[in-house]
Amino acid sequence: MNRRPAGRRIAVVLILAGLCLAMPPCASCAEKIIALDYRIFPGLAEMDGNWAALTVAHDGKVYAGLACHGCDGHLVMYDPALDRVSDLGNLTRLAGEASLRIGPQSKIHAKFGEGPDGRIYFGTHAGLWFNYARVGTKEGYPGAHWMAYDPKTGKVEDFGIGPRYGGINTGAYDPKFNRIYGLTHPRGHFVYYDVASRKAVDKGRINNFDSICRTLGIDDEGNVYGNFGAGQIYKYDPRTDEIIELPLHIPIQPKGVSLGRDYNKSETHWRTVVWDSQEKKFYGVDESASLLFSFDPHAGQYGEVKPLGQLCVEGMNDRRDIPYATLTLALGRDRKLYYAPPAKEFDYAGSSGIGVSHLIVYDLEGGRTEDRGEMRLADGRRVIGLNSADTAPDGTIYFVGAIEVRDAPGEQNESAGKIGNVPYRLALVIYRPKPR
Amino acid sequence: MMRKIFFCCALLMVAAPLAKSQRTPDYDSVVVPQNRIDARDLGYPPIDVIPDGESAITALAVAPNGNLYGATSGKRSHLFVLNPRHGYVQPLGFIPGATAVTNALAVSDWGDVYIGSAPAGHLLKYTPQREDEQPLRVKEPCEVTDLGPAVRGESIQTLAIDRRAGVIYGLTFPNAHFFKFTLTTGTSADLGVVARRAPEGEKFETTKMVSRMLVLDLKGNVYASGEDGFLFKFDNEKQALEKLPVQAPSIPGREPWTRVDTFLLDPSGLIFGGTSDGYLFRFDPESMMVSNLGKPLLEYRITGLVRASNGKLFGVGGDEDDMARLFSYDPQTATYQIFGFVDVNRRPYYSWQAYVVHAMAVGLDDTIYIGESERISKLYLFYPY
Fold it and tell me: What ipTM does the predicted assembly reach?
């Protein structure tokens, strides 16, 4: 019997199957494109990442933290009234460490918060960790600084180092108790800075280095919530200064050995949550499958979690290679959740390849999910991946992330690096929802 | 040829998940080899475990029958046991009145466990009673006998036991009293202080420098470190405490802030120790010579030090802000081996790294027990061979 034709057919089938797996999802959605406005950060093309660090203040000004691995991060502000981006400062210089030539203040890795005094509060973070070979050494990262930017004076107040040798990987600001909260990397401690008493407090270990929850949620009473283990929720009560583990879990999707970035993690948590001040509950997505859920902390004795669906690119729902979730959940003024998942595993220069973000919208009133399609700039350039979002008082949704760089009129071809073989840079991406 | 293509394609199809089966592979080169270490929860999760905030392991001791006893510090202290035959940690209850037990567990020849408590400074006795038949006790108190305060007004910093003589020795905090407790009579004697004043330092530095452990030599004499890093000896024959003319090693000028973190007695009669600056040293009680064996790690402190039956020493270094690392020292060749971070990766079941370690012990079978000392803590088992 001649086996050669059969063997050739088998090989072709296998190769085609492999190509199918590598194809981007949702071929039908490639026809849907949503055009977005954007602003670059002039003079800061070197900035190579942004995670969570985006907040719109009550006056509409947009604050972002831009990261630079191996170099100094920056605090920037976009004023939509003047349509101007300003560089508010080099983080290492603001920390007074510019001349030390030690581990720089490379990032703001968490959401800012606006205080009752109008100041913008945050904590800084490191960029490179070298498998922790430099933790605690002279030349290593000295520790995160707690800081506040005052828009009235244009100055940053440095409250000093919070966690020694650790960065603020996750953070949130509570205006009620006037505290900046954080989870540190790499030692996974729950920490906070009490602005009124000028005290930095360390409540101790909460996670392993590989699984630090990326978002802390704060409710209307000032309680702080995070995630650990297999999606279990913990609560920090500022009145008792205690951390309590709640018997509540968010939905997570067990999926064996993950093919995505979360394969590095040993636990599965929520990736991001947003507080709905109208319904007084959180909405969030889990990190490994972008499962959407609500968490009502005031329901019953411990609170209540409800699964609501999945916010991912259409067609990716049950795929093993569904990308690690992004930090781009925002609650619009129109009672819709906006979320921008990537089409491929996205982590800036660490991405698994080039893809295009989608804009997913979940209508809280109708409970419907809609994939509005690929996010592109007006000139067709791809929005490759986004990792922060916030909503302005006028309903504008702002994101920060990576846009494709090509020679474009009025812009120099500057990039922070490549994703796949495509140069990228950070940009403020702007979406203006249509009024209801 | 087609068979080869077929095989390669099939291999590629399955290779992707396998190649990414765990965390970044290069991290495994900076941690203890993963086939030689494991970890245990302090109880039966998720409910019957020593609670977070009460689980920092700060004392470990191996009983004559091979059982490992451990004590924790935090909002409350707990006692636990690990019987190597079963291999799991059995919480025995919280220790009444105690929030800290620091290197203050001592097990007598007949198996009673003596606990030096803080802040009250009472000596407590726990008598094992058919532990295999007992339930896990987390919310319940451990059944102990209160033997009274060791030195009034002082808490207990560390204990050591002379099993043959039936005597327990200890150091107190904050005033560095050296005391002796006789098991047969149940009486305690204050034998003097090893540090009269805190070293000169910043205004917030008010702690007297005393060793975090005690050690007995082959003759039953007891050693501690005290003021300015000097070694102190309680002479068993003379029944007197004396300051020796030798100090724990340090950079010249750092003596006032130097203390011995860990001691161990080698069967040869030599005593090894680790200092707060992270030096390993050898002390010969006969010749009164201290030899500085150098620093195995960049970090400060050697917070645990044990000896395996092949003569090698194993230790852990690093302070509260660090990431602890395990090392070994071979006295035969005077060489160090640095194993790396104390970490266990058993995904998908568990994965946890100990950043702070405050206790170590070695079992009768050479299993080395490492006690993590953080808000959430595990007990690690390291197999030296």
Answer: 0.91
